[in-house]
Hints:
The structure holds 2 protein chains of 2 kinds. Chain A is an alpha/beta fold.
Amino acid sequence: MNIYVLLKRTFDTEEKIVVSDGRIEDESAEYIINPYDEYAVEEAIKQRDEHGGEVTVVTVGDEESEKQLRTALAMGADKAVLINTEDDVEDGDQYTTAKILESFFEDKEADLILAGNVAIDEASGQVGPRLAESLGINYVTTITALEIDGESANIDKDVEGDVEKIETALPVLVTCQQGLNEPRYPSLPGIMKAKKKPLEELEIDDLDLDEDDVEAKTETIDIFLPPEKEAGKVLEGEIDDQVKELISLLKNDAKVL
Amino acid sequence: MSETKEKLFKGGGFLTEDLQANDVITPEDFTEEHKMIGKTTDDFVEGEVVPKIDHMENHEFEYSIDLIKKAGELGLLGADIPEEYGGLNLDKISSAIITEKFARGGGFSITHGGHVGIGTLPIVFFGNEKQKSTYLPKLATGEMIAAYALTEPSAGSDAMSGKTTAKLNEAGTHYILNGEKQWITNSAFADVFIVYAQVDGDQFTAFIVEREFPGVSTGPEEKKMGIKSSSTRTLILEDVEVPVENLLGEKGKGHKIAFNILNVGRYKLAMGGVGGSKVGIEVATKYVNERKQFNTSISSFSLTQEKLATMAAKTYANESAVYRTVGLFEQRMGALSDEQLKDGREVAKAIAEYQIECSLNKFSATECMDYVVDEALQLHGGYGFMEDYEVARMYRDSRINRIFEGTNEINRLIVPGTLIKKAMKGELPLLQAAQKLQEELMMMMPEEVGEATLEQEKYLLKNAKKMILLGAGLAAQKYQQKLADEQEILVNLADMVNEVYNMESAILRTEKAINKDGEDKHKQKLLYTQVYVQEAFNRIEADAKESLIAVEEGDTLRMMLSSLRKLTRHTPINVIAKKRSIAAKIIEEEKYVV
């Protein structure tokens, strides 16, 4: 089986987000593999171990993304591809990434493509579905179980806490939800082997794309942090009075009624 | 790192050498693989070990055994084991990083260390082909767990005086071992014990003893003050038949193995000390940010900040020193041929060259950790005294580190003792340097110290080295062969040597980082270095003064004190202000940051 994983480098979940001059400060930030993409890497390795084939991890990013690709290789992926957009793309969006990936996959025969449900930074959840649409293949989002049997795939899909059972055919793109598996730690032998595994670096030029082809469809107008949570208010007195006060607060203060 | 590998440094040589930033290996030199190994270890300890600590504290050792096996699956037991025996044969820096990261696991770090360090390494270093292929592959996976049995009720610091006996049977096939080994880490579940015994009364010899051998048993679990999540029992040997092929190394040469393993054990404990200090800072900082008194979080009080900054500056200096020592091992092993590298003895020899550094790091880093966890507990106030908070356990766990693997007092005494031995043998030019200093001091004029970055710190370092030569030279002259009886002076000297090693390691590390990416990126490192060097210099001055006063009197003393004053003249920095800046960054990041 030809298995591909779409991976994104994101801020560590423990990083504090600091915004200055309309940009998120990334000077001293620590980075990780987007946690949902880790489920994808783990699932890809498991499926390969069961059905044979090869796992290729693909990321659209910059030189620094190599670290996260190496980590995926250390977990057990076979090959990695870094599509380095550092020199070509200033402010890409989901369209940009999906477009680049579409070109990348044009000449690939993928049986299974796995991605994270969302990236924890921008959380659009769009890249996977967009890519599947443009490749004209099936896709299922937020999966929590995956059984492949020949050409068919049996999938559990998380629908807001309920489970939807889906049967579909390969090739298929899935996005992975928490609960799908428990990602392994990269072992020390894995880390040492990862050094020697192939990591191909491409630029959009190599995919016959130029900057205009991948120009973002959205524009970021402002970036700001959510307002700090203020202390709550406890209403007191008779129930009737409390209800009256609550309604008045909702009407006049919060202006939601 | 290639340029550093070509140079070889003598153990203890730093007292008379003028080192450059490129001569030392620092945490900033870690490769991507080093960082990944660190992350895997961190994630493993955080994700698998920490949630089980409470179980292990209750002596539910099935968790310990399971965790050792899981660590084996990840390769966390095989760093120091050669590849042909199922290990990974990683460099010493990787192995040090693993040890450092295990510190978060509390007493389990002692289980891990007892297994991979003192338990396994005697076989790696001194085992023959048969012994290595029998035991190492299983030790690398955790299928077998190792323990080290040296101490006896009447043989602690005087380890070679053990009473356990080994007698060859008539058929010449087995040694019959009898005796008791006390306080043996991992003894509840270890499968293999490295046991020392006297053959024919006085030939101190090491043996590999399997738990399954008839006559091997263990006593009840000790009730310890800390590291309760590790197992500690007495190993009882009653007419245990140990096959002759399980004699480790050479008959009567057990002390060689013991001393070499102690060196490794010491630097590994130092690594743990650094790791534990970092955890202590993190735990303390999170608490003081959270805890509010007088309507404000207590991290906003400058006294809280002073504590955090002192903890971090000490940690920085110790971290720099310990990784520098590991770098020295690496540099020396880089000079070995492939053939030599395969011979564990050569590797052990390369490490033994740095016996002084191992001892310094051991007492310094374990006391750093003890200081840090004590202050971390203090910052928790009354809550720190409650077992609900992990800082209480950290405080209890830390204490043993100043005692085992050679008490910190023994380790202090080793430092001047070894230095003098090396000087007498002509291995270190200490005598010449001390003589030269005496002439220099006669004509010495105060120096103008410039404003350049680290210039003051380098000046203080240079003079601190001179203070040691002054004190050591004087004491050696006065007491000659009887110097060994003057333990207070020797310990003062050891402390001074240690401060110099730490100061220098911090200075060179900071300088190396600044040379690479500029001062702006390394402000925190610079602050740590400035604060540590100033405070260490003050301590050195006090030690030197106390020693001179004890050794000399009258006019000679007055002359000596005036020499000392020349060496200590400088304009001190404002430590309080610098500590506030240090703390600001730590409080923001809620952990030790460089």
